[in-house]
Write a structure and sequence with these properties.
This protein has three helices and four strands. The strands form two sheets. The chain has a two-stranded antiparallel ribbon. It has a two-stranded antiparallel ribbon with strand order 3-4.
């Protein structure tokens, strides 16, 4: 039986994001939010922190799933990019 899927959103309404397994979405989402609850991070810092946190327990491409879920969380207004240089991500 195929795992339950979620259609992820993209911050750019003209773009369509991916359909991914709901359990993987929830796992990556939980970890991204836990990381961002501590401090604002650049894209590179965020993806590296996610990789270090889940690399031993997650099956699949951490960076790919991380990017897909990050875009979805931006589109849902759960996280946002700062206007600083370099841009950082933070919880809304």
């Amino acid at each position: 039986m195929k795992p339950e899927q979620i259609q992820t959103l993209h911050p750019d309404p003209l773009k369509k994001n991916k359909r991914i397994a709901l359990d993987k979405y929830e796992f990556i989402k939980k970890n991204l939010l836990a990381i961002l609850a501590k401090k604002e991070l650049t894209h590179t810092e965020l993806m590296e922190a996610l990789y270090q946190k889940v690399k031993d327990t997650f099956e699949g491409g951490v960076q790919w799933y991380g990017e897909t879920v990050k875009l979805d969380l931006e589109a849902r207004h759960v996280i946002e990019r700062t206007t600083t240089k370099p841009q950082k991500y933070k919880l809304r």
